[in-house]
Each structure stands twice: as structure tokens, then as C-alpha cells.
Amino acid sequence: MSSGTSAQGPRLRPTLDGIPTYKPGKPAGADAYKLSSNENPYEPLPGVLETAVKAAGSFNRYPDMGVTELTSVLAERFGVPAEHIATGTGSVGIAQSLVLVTAGPGDEVIFAWRSFEAYPIVATVAGATPVPVPLKANGDHDLDAMLAAITPNTRLVFVCNPNNPTGNVIHRAELERFLDAVPADVLVVVDEAYIEFIRDPEVPNGIDLYRDRPNVCVLRTFSKAYGLAGLRVGFAIAHEPVAAALRKVATPFGVSRLAQDAAVASLRAEEALLERVEALVEERTRVVAGLRAQGWEIPDSQANFVWLWLGDRSQEFAAACAEAGVIVRPFPEGVRVSIGEAEGNSIFLAVAEAFRKSL
Ligand code: PMP
């Protein structure tokens, strides 16, 4: 029954009917490699774990609502004023807040498609209209088409760099040209969840782009390179009106003390964490080379995953991987496979090789 027309229960917003119900994936068995959520395969660094365990000792108390220490460490690390930082329950929580502070019914939210699946959901939850703009055939953002999609009702544009799930990146000149063409009253969110995995020198750091552009917001997470996915902490960097608005709508006490302290400890242990990122990038290089040697045409991923354009054979491929003990993520257009432990990556490569021969 449509949620807005329920005869017996409370009236729910009809707009929710457009949002797919979350179906949890089958949990990876203990002996399966989970390459489906772009997580960091390394266990927490001992020092970070120790900090989190210590913080757990006070979970009878609310955390610091102002997220003071983490905010000041971030401000120093990235050379931005503390007032320009807003933290949240994962960057997806902040993405939701970004829509809430800019768009409502009748307003439009533009994003490339396929891209991060949360964009249409957070737009719809706010009552706004999601406007997906197809990627180019090679998986690049079609920035000209995204510009052309802007109307007087557009309030927010998400740009995912590198793009999840294809891994393609947008280069500096192209992104700057785009940002300068977007009307000043439209917020552009540059989602850089995977920035630490980029090795292409032509890709800009969004923080350099936001500084003299009041309508640009950079979105970052501790879930990927920093390995804190389960603690739910991310942050946005934006000029003060946007950052202050984000702080207004944030779930009170949404970032736990564990998350705050572990994020601070991770920034202090950044060198060790970035060594792990380097190892994952080396694994990505091995996986990409292996797939290309098998004959796959794949995007030049700059993130911690690779993408196979498998179309209607995606489910079949994912099933073959699961059979071999590797959980990957099928979409209607293709399959995304996270870079994980070397053994898991090798099993995936073996499945890809056999599958390729069957095409
Ligand atoms: N942005 C992108 C592009 C992502 O792929 C993800 C996670 N899959 C997120 C944001 C959200 O990450 P989190 O909420 O864990 O910070």
C-alpha cells in the first residue's frame, strides 16, 4: 500500500514511496572476502584502537556536542578556519544535511548517474527532486550536461571525485571551468570520499578550490583511507554560512566520543595509515593490470575499487565471485569490486579471467 494513503496507520509522506527500502546484503561468511563496500581491509592501528577503547569507558556520557578537539585538529591539518568545518555521522549524514539546508519541495538536486547511491535518496528524503545526469560512455562525469541541467530551481549539485562506482576522476581545469560556470547561488558539493587513493597529479584537491568560491563545499570521510567506517564520522569544509547551517541541522551528539577520539588519533597516526593506503594503491595497480591483461576494458580507477562494465551479466558475475568466496557489488550497469586483502583480490582476478573467456 502507498505509504501516503494508509487507511489505518499514521500518514507517512508519499515521497518516501520513491525511496528503495534498504535490503541488507548477505553478510560475508567468515571465510569470504568482503569486497563490496569499499572498506579498508586493515584492522585498526593498535594506538587508534586503544584510544577508542579508552573513550568507550565513558559512553554513559554524551560526547562533546561541539566536536571541539577534532574540529581544531582538522582545521590545523587542512589550513582552514575551524568555523569552516562541520562534522557528521559519516559523510553520508552530512550529504543528507547538505540537502536539508539547501533544498525542499520544488527544488532540484543534480548529480551524475551512476554515482553514489545516497545522492538520489537524500534528495528525495528532503522532498526535493533528484536530477540524475548520465555519465559519459567511458564513466566520466558529463559536466557540460550537468551545467545544462541547471534550472532556476537547482539548489545543489553533487560532484563525486573520484566517482563511486566507476573510479573516474575529473581533472583540475575541467572542474574549475565547471565551478566557475555554476550560478553563485547553487551549492556545489565535491565529494572526495576516496581522495587519499588518487595518484593522478591532474586531479585537484577540493580544498584548494573551495577557498575563493563561497558556493563550494568539500566532503570528506574517515571511513575509507582512515579505516573508521564502523564509527561513522565524516566532515565538510565550506564557507561559514554553509558550515554553520550544517551544524544547525546536525543530529545532536551525532558523532560519538569513540568516533571523535579515534578520528583525532587517526589524524595523529596519519603517516602509518597513508602507508597502508599506498599498499592498497599498489594492489589496485596489480588488479587493474591483471584485468587489462585478461582483455577487460576498465576505467582508470583512482579509488579503492575497480569497475567492470558488465551490464546485464552483473548478477551472474557477482554470483560467480560469491561461489569462489569473494563478495562484490553488482549494479545494473556493472560490478564494483573493492581492493582488499591480496588473497581476496587474487581470487577475484581468477574469477574475472574465467568469466572473460565465457563472454
Ligand atoms: N561518498 C561516497 C562517494 C561514498 O562512496 C561513500 C561511502 N560508500 C560516502 C560518501 C559515505 O561514506 P561515510 O558515510 O561512511 O562517510
TrEMBL record:
<dbReference type="InterPro" id="IPR050106">
    <property type="entry name" value="HistidinolP_aminotransfase"/>
</dbReference>
<dbReference type="InterPro" id="IPR015424">
    <property type="entry name" value="PyrdxlP-dep_Trfase"/>
</dbReference>
<dbReference type="GO" id="GO:0008793">
    <property type="term" value="F:aromatic-amino-acid transaminase activity"/>
</dbReference>
<dbReference type="InterPro" id="IPR015422">
    <property type="entry name" value="PyrdxlP-dep_Trfase_small"/>
</dbReference>
<dbReference type="InterPro" id="IPR024892">
    <property type="entry name" value="ArAT"/>
</dbReference>
<protein>
    <recommendedName>
        <fullName>Aromatic amino acid aminotransferase</fullName>
        <ecNumber>2.6.1.57</ecNumber>
    </recommendedName>
</protein>
<feature type="region of interest" description="Disordered">
    <location>
        <begin position="1"/>
        <end position="23"/>
    </location>
</feature>
<keyword id="KW-0808">Transferase</keyword>
<dbReference type="InterPro" id="IPR015421">
    <property type="entry name" value="PyrdxlP-dep_Trfase_major"/>
</dbReference>
<keyword id="KW-0032">Aminotransferase</keyword>
<dbReference type="Pfam" id="PF00155">
    <property type="entry name" value="Aminotran_1_2"/>
</dbReference>
<comment type="function">
    <text>Aminotransferase that catalyzes the conversion of aromatic amino acids and 2-oxoglutarate into corresponding aromatic oxo acids and L-glutamate.</text>
</comment>
<feature type="domain" description="Aminotransferase class I/classII large">
    <location>
        <begin position="33"/>
        <end position="343"/>
    </location>
</feature>
<feature type="modified residue" description="N6-(pyridoxal phosphate)lysine">
    <location>
        <position position="224"/>
    </location>
</feature>
<keyword id="KW-0663">Pyridoxal phosphate</keyword>
<dbReference type="InterPro" id="IPR005861">
    <property type="entry name" value="HisP_aminotrans"/>
</dbReference>
<dbReference type="InterPro" id="IPR004839">
    <property type="entry name" value="Aminotransferase_I/II_large"/>
</dbReference>
<comment type="similarity">
    <text>Belongs to the class-II pyridoxal-phosphate-dependent aminotransferase family.</text>
</comment>
<dbReference type="GO" id="GO:0000105">
    <property type="term" value="P:L-histidine biosynthetic process"/>
</dbReference>
<comment type="subunit">
    <text>Homodimer.</text>
</comment>
<dbReference type="InterPro" id="IPR001917">
    <property type="entry name" value="Aminotrans_II_pyridoxalP_BS"/>
</dbReference>
<dbReference type="GO" id="GO:0030170">
    <property type="term" value="F:pyridoxal phosphate binding"/>
</dbReference>
<dbReference type="GO" id="GO:0004400">
    <property type="term" value="F:histidinol-phosphate transaminase activity"/>
</dbReference>
